[in-house]
Give the backbone structure.
Amino acid sequence: MQKIDMNSPEFLKEMEKTKKFTDKVNKQFGYVYNNNEDINEGVTMGLARHKILYAKRFCPCFMVEEVEDGTFKSVDDRVCPCPQAIEKEIPELGKCHCGIFCTPEYVANNDQ
Ligand code: SF4
């Protein structure tokens, strides 16, 4: 697995962009962040890492595999924000599989 220096300017810049991206997703769909900050940070870091490695925000909670032509894909076909989360997980469970995007109701009921 390719290593990325989490303190490098490149990574920190991508983290900033990813945070803007997740802010935008929340705004667009009316979601809110999880009230567990560790989850939000871990998922943001994973998304930033995948963007640097693969030029796509593949879901950080699913494996990414190389396909025959040298390109990569998420094994569960999840590029953030994934349809699985928007259409099923968030409406039914209150949060996406990774847990960063939640309904306000889910967060209110999971006060930590
Ligand atoms: S489960 Fe879907 S919406 Fe949640 S972080 Fe992964 S790709 Fe994004």
Residues 43, 59, 61, 78, 80-82, 85, 96-98, 100-101 surround iron/sulfur cluster (CB under 6 Å). The first strand starts at residue 32 and ends at 33. Residues 82 and 101 are 11 Å apart (CA to CA).
